[in-house]
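Key idea: predict the complex, not the pieces.
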Amino acid sequence: MAWFILIMAGMLICAAMAVVAKRLLVSAIWLAIASALLALLIYLLGAPELAVIELSVGAGLVTVLFVFAISIAGEEGHIHQSLLPKWLAGIVIAVSVGLIGWLCLPDLGFEMPQLVPTRLSTVLWELRGADVILQVILIFAGVLGVLGLLSGEQSTISKEPDA
Amino acid sequence: MANVLILLILGLPWLGALLVWWVGDQRSKAQIVLAILFSVLAGVASLVLIPFASNSVALNIPLGGAFGDFTFVADGLGIYLAAIATIIGSLAVIFSVDYMRGEAQLGRYYALVLFFIGGMAGLVLTSNLLLMFVFWEITALCSYALISFHSDDPKAVYGGIKALIVTQFGGIGLLAGALLIYAYSGSYDLQAFIANPQILPPGVLAVTAFGFLVAAAAKSAQFPFQTWLPDAMEAPTPISALIHAATMVNAGVYLLARFYPAFERVPGWREAVVVVGVVTALMAALMALVSNDLKRVLAYSTVSQLGYMVYAIGTGGVFASQFHLMSHSVFKALLFLAAGAVIHSIGTRDIRQMGGLGAQMPLVRTVFAIGALSLAGIPILNGFWSKELILESGSAHGPLWAWVMMVICAGLTALYTFRCFWLVFAGEPRSHLHGHDAGTAMKVALIPLAVGAFLTELLAGPFAYILEHTVPLMEIEVGTTLSILEEVVTTPLTLVALAVVALGLAVWWWREKLSGLSEALAGIGRVAADSFGFEAINRGIVNSTNWLSEKLRRTQTGLLNWNIFGITAGFLLVLIILVIGG
Amino acid sequence: MTLSLVSLTFIAVIGLLAIGLYALLVVHNLIKVVVALQILAKGAILGFILAGRINGQIGLAESLALTVIIVDTIVAVIGLSLAVQIRHHMGTLDVSALTRLRR
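Result:
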């Protein structure tokens, strides 16, 4: 139980650090750590296949993409002040979280039910075949996105001699 | 079989629209071929569907619990309106080949026309109220986009936006009625509702009935919304024919006819429908009398004839109204397409500049004359039979004053039709404009319609038979074509009406001798030219909608943080309501 | 009062969602916006797993969470490539500067 609390607290802190970090690269690294901790949590909750995917995609692939994009786009120099006062944003979020907790937590006091293991692959192929097809199409969209990233890099390079 | 055919009627035009758009404007020949092919095939499918008419659900698309199943019923009323939409629609497409030759962006044009035809067919075939509303809005959207097809012309854009906003205003009535029906009956199935309207409390039923009346009046350009249709004349002429004869304005009359069995016992509803019909028919006839724009004359005549149909529904003559709708579709499509041929050849719509065109374009003159005689209600043409049937139903079941007004209106119709024909085709040329006769594609579209103007009254018997057997709630008495026509011929009222029509023609013939009378009526003419002031209501609706949109534009900041703040604040509001409520 | 594992995980889900939403409210850098979306999606994934455990349908929950991961990764890819292109064409990553379509 203590492990759970530790992992969750660490994950939340890492996510918060990813938001507040000044440098984009640091932010991406905090996000990767949060992702890894989430994968660990998912594994402990009894979904090992998904934990592997989250670790490799969330902590691995996405982080690589972030580092790649940041190295092309560069750290931003001048950013405007926030339009929305931070205290207002904080109050809205805090009140919402408080209300959700007040509404839901009393009903969630029960113990976690026993794990009924089902195989992800069975469900995926037998019940949600349409999802899988859609995901394949989506991955093609992702490939197009990567092409967008690459062309951004090329045009920066070709622009540089002019500047 | 019926389900496949319904899918074809709906699917073919929409598939055609996609293909036309996909082929692209570089290959406009292929676009034209595709558009004609798919619209004609849809027309054929709708004809094949006629023997399969029944009042049971023919096609059912289950969509889970939220909206009810999307059901389609091919009963007599729906099939025959779908047939009109697809057949007249395909003739308009064929006519467009000559009329729109050389225009830019033909892909947009043909795709929208096909989308429009499919939407109208869906509207009349579906039996799910929510789906009906969706199709209703699709026709509104297409009419907007096609009226403003020449999007660089501010008048066209204004006409399109006016049509969109006014019909949307009516659409609120339809949506409110549909939601009320759903709230009380728990289903969107309109067949069940029509069979058992007592499911709604009387007050709610009355609100629904008048909501649908507002929707129908806005869609069919009835009083007090009658001014959008003439402003829609900036559209290319085949589109006007499509809107006036095949799609769009028929939807309002269809709505009233479809729900007549449910609403006929609502106190005051039938009277309101009669008043709307009579006022519209008279006002529009007077406006047609003083207008100098060829297409506007025809537009006002459409509004006036739709007034006849609405009046017929108010007096219980559902069959008479639908029969007149069929006749009207044929002769009005004929008139519009012939007018399109004239406008296309000489390049103006002002009838004061025309005159003597008959010698230059004999075919167009002949078919226009056939259409005009039918519109005026001259015997043996289809307009005569259906109009007399309406007047007969009105005299039997409606108030006397309304009948007298409608007979006077028949005389006015004859007068303005004859004036229009005379100014365009007869007399001496009043300018140096030179016309040429219609092209091949135009002829292909015009000649079947001209033949139809002579023959469609023969369909009265079979049509009455189908309606009687598949829409039992309408309580239509049986009759063969012969008995229906015989009834018209033997009623003495027909002679009265014919005498008034002849009087209308005589007034035009002796117009010089009656100049004193016409000067006395000049005041009415001036008010009529100004749409009797009801333009102000319509302009008010359009302007206030525009004003509101301009004000609301400020809320669309395009700033991410503010948008998320709006979402979060809305979420917070829901939470607070939950906390208070729980 | 000791918290059960269910309520603990629930708090983690809400925490992730709250952090992501707060980030969307205050950040201005396009790449940071993508980071915020990632955090939100992580909250959703954890929520699915928790719901699957409670209902005893972990397999179904996993397949849904898998969809979330894929969609979310693609959102990240598209968002980042948009950021790169915008940086290249407009010289900034500031979302509040991207209002050229406004009148």
